[in-house]
Amino acid sequence: MRRRASTQRERREAQYLDLLLALSRQPLPVVCTAPEDIDRILALRSAALVEAATDPPVLLRTGERFIPRAVVLGITPAGRTALARMRSMRKPPEPEPHEPPQPAARPDPR
After folding, report:
1. Is the dihedral of CA 72, 78, 80, 84 positive or negative?
2. Would you give the distance in Å from CA 48 to the centre of its chain?
3. SS (H, E, C) 68-86
């Protein structure tokens, strides 16, 4: 069976959930300054999966705006539900193949 190629939306959603998983493994609050992480945190906050605070947007001379810092304060119950669903959908790693142990040879009673 061929695996369906993931769409751009599915890849983006996976990035959001991967960040949510990483945040769940760290002591909170977590401060983020990387623009791509801030964008993902804003999306997670919009989806009500995390509680987060951001600095006010900064207006550059070019007219572009950016948010210099986001602080994740907590993961909401909806975020914990999403994490549980994600963990249940991921397949556990396959055990390494190995041979069953062989019984020890018994001495001949003669």
Report:
1. negative
2. 15
3. CCEEEEEECHHHHHHHHHH
Q: Which residues contact 39 (CB under 8 A, 6 or more apart)?
A: none
Confidence class for position 1, pLDDT limits 50, 70, 90: very low
Instruction: State how far the alpha carbon of 67 is from the alpha carbons of 2, 10, 61, 71, in Å.
Output: 42, 25, 15, 11
Residue 101 belongs to some domain of the structure: no
Q: What is the pTM of this model?
A: 0.72
Domain that holds residue 34: 10-89
Q: Indicate the number of domains in the chain.
A: 1
Do 16 and 43 contact (CB within 8 A), yes or no? yes
**Rounded distance, CA 73 to CA 100, Å?**
49
102 lies in a domain?
no
Identify the band that residue 38 occupies on the pLDDT scale cut at 50, 70 and 90: very high
